[in-house]
Amino acid sequence: MTEVLFYTHVDDKLQTACALTSKARARGMRVMLFTADAGMTDRLSRMLWSTPSIGFVPHCRCDHRLAPITPVIVDHLSEPLIHDQVLVNLCDDTPPFFSRFQRLAEIVSTDARDSEAARSRFRFYRDRGYDIVTHQLGGTQS
């Protein structure tokens, strides 16, 4: 069953996605960053070229000819799915293909609309029996 992780109270979802991707890559994992649209895909791709500050994260889109050998896929399209290790969801909705992945990371900003969409996704996973681990990255813990 897919391991579901929520990273909450983040100031910058894309920067957090870059950090989580770098961490997963350091552990030898392959990552798919699922974005909301082409604009977000392009912004995130540009960020990955300078993350970490003294390097970059090798990545491409899912339909690129090098996708099968590239460790990170960044796209707003889900097909073809190249691997099944880590999915980072940057969309408001639950990805219909999330259960194909070993691990799903949901990043939740401090924005009220984003938090509400995340609560809906949280309920979706919980109601289907997924164990959910939550990491509060910003703000104060209660």
Description:
With about 140 residues, the chain is of the alpha/beta class. The protein has helices spanning about 15-25, 40-50, 110-125; strands at about 5-10, 30-35, 60, 70-75, 85-90, 105-110, 130-135. The chain has one domain (about 5-100, about 110-135): DNA polymerase III subunit chi (Rossmann fold), CATH 3.40.50.10110. The chain has 3 helices and 7 strands; from the N terminus they run E-H-E-H-E-E-E-E-H-E. It has a 7-stranded parallel sheet with strand order 3-4-2-5-6-1-7, with helices on both faces. The longest helix is centred in the C-terminal third of the chain and has 16 residues, at about 110-125. The chain is globular, with a radius of gyration of 14 Å. The chain starts with a strand and ends in a 6-residue tail after the last strand. The mean pLDDT is about 90.
Give the helix/strand layout.
Elements: E1 3-10, H1 13-26, E2 31-34, H2 38-48, E3 59-60, E4 72-75, E5 86-89, E6 103-109, H3 112-127, E7 132-136
Parallel strand pairs: 1-6, 1-7, 2-4, 2-5, 3-4, 5-6
